Amino acid sequence: MAILLIAIGLAGIIWQVGRAPERRAHGERKERCTGRDYARATEVQAHPHTSTAAPGWDSERVVSGNDEWEPFVAADPSSHYVYQMTTRFNSKISGIYIRRSADGGATWEPAHDVGPISKWQADPQVQVAANGTVFAVWLDGPTWTSRLTKSYDHGATWTPSIAVAPSLRWTDHPWLVVSPDGQDVYIGLNHDDSFFVTSHDGGATFSEPYRTSYVPAHWWDHNGGAIAPDGSIYFVVINFFLDYRGPSEINVISSHDRGATWQAQVVARSQPPPGCVGIEGCEYGFLSSTAGLAIDRDGTILVAYHGSDESKSPQQLWVVTSRDGVHWTPRQQISQPNTDASNGFPAAANGPAAGDFRVVWQGNKNGDAHGWNTYYRRTTDGGVSWGEIELLSDRTTGAPYKNPAGFLFPYGDYLGLSVDGDGNNHVIWGEGASYDGPGGSWYTRGGTH
């Protein structure tokens, strides 16, 4: 047995005892789908209705009756435009589709593909600069290439896409951060190890990938990112065992020189996740820790993540905060107190005021394996106290995977949360019949009360 000592940044020192170094031939994606959809059995609503479960919110609506998973959303901070991206499956291919709303998410134009589809696409990301420029990133197959495109006319037309890290043989799970002026673009991605690429010309060209991890038999998953008022960049990145059988680490990786160098710090740890027995297509590791990150106007950083102290136990949702990215508060649980309930897939965003953070996630409140829901919680004092948990997935009908307890299973392992210039939340997530599906992308807006 070889013993490897890897030093990671300020506090991330990991001892690894195990087999010889392992690497994957490519990343992870949803390999299977049923080839079906629930178009005829799904109620698609063109106009919003008031939620009966969460005051100040719209009732949830589904994007379409197509088989769609792992959606993302971004609101333009300078206008009423909102953008949604989702991964759409049919029996042969998967493609990334994008659509826009010009009235703050009340009504939507038809979705269209974001770029030519060769065989498959996955992992959509969209962000909007303060001047209205829209940036979109996704993973393009079969070459596992992370690609970027832009729109200067609110999503009406798009530039030809470019590969952001062509020197890597394959990439996985790109995560996008854009500066307010749209000139600085940062993308975290993995080739098992963690890498970052940087652009300072609005995404026209990118640096060579900067590697921030050197841990054999592990892979690193970028889950969220944001830019602080002083220009520092922070990403939250999960360090997994390749087989998910060991503990995972929640890292914050930051740069204070516009991406020239990066430092990593472990801010939390979790024991291995529970399985998803009885869920068609769901393999061990799907419920592993994920995280979200946001930074408020004063520079306070919040990380929301799910994890557990006991191996294969249901995971709870936790938050930690920092004023300097080095010293972190003790973790605080914000999910429901029922320890039989699983929680996962958080996203975090900041509001317009200092101390204003919002978090959304999915969970099965009573430990019901087929009764998942999407939740929201907010703090206005930097995480010292939190408002009540609000139920966003308020409908019990409208698609075959809906039931009185919620929906059968999360459809994808991340969701989207964006706050517009008026402080309104825009949330999108996946609901499905199983891991294999079919499923749909559901969304809502509101929560400014």
How would you briefly describe this protein structure?
The chain is an all-beta fold and 449 residues long. The chain has a single domain (37-446), classed as 6 Propeller (Neuraminidase).
Q: What's the overall average pLDDT, rounded? A: 93
Shape call: globular
CATH class term? Mainly Beta
Strand percentage, roughly? 35-45%
Largest sheet: 5 strands, antiparallel
CATH second-level architecture: 6 Propeller
Q: How many structurally independent domains?
A: 1
Number of strands: 33
Here the CATH topology equals Neuraminidase
Low-confidence stretches: 1-21
Instruction: Kindly name the structural category.
Output: mainly beta
The portion of residues assigned to helices is under 10%
Rg, rounded, reads: 20 Å
Given the structure, what is the number of helices? 0
How do the helices and strands line up, and which of them pair or pack?
Layout: E1 2-8, E2 12-18, E3 61-62, E4 67-75, E5 82-89, E6 94-101, E7 112-113, E8 121-128, E9 134-140, E10 145-151, E11 162-163, E12 172-178, E13 185-191, E14 193-199, E15 210-211, E16 218-227, E17 233-241, E18 248-255, E19 263-270, E20 291-295, E21 301-307, E22 316-322, E23 332-333, E24 343-350, E25 357-363, E26 373-379, E27 390-391, E28 402-403, E29 406-407, E30 409-410, E31 416-419, E32 425-432, E33 439-446
Antiparallel strand pairs: 1-2, 3-33, 4-5, 5-6, 6-7, 8-9, 9-10, 10-11, 12-13, 13-14, 14-15, 16-17, 17-18, 18-19, 20-21, 21-22, 22-23, 24-25, 25-26, 26-27, 28-29, 30-32, 31-32, 32-33
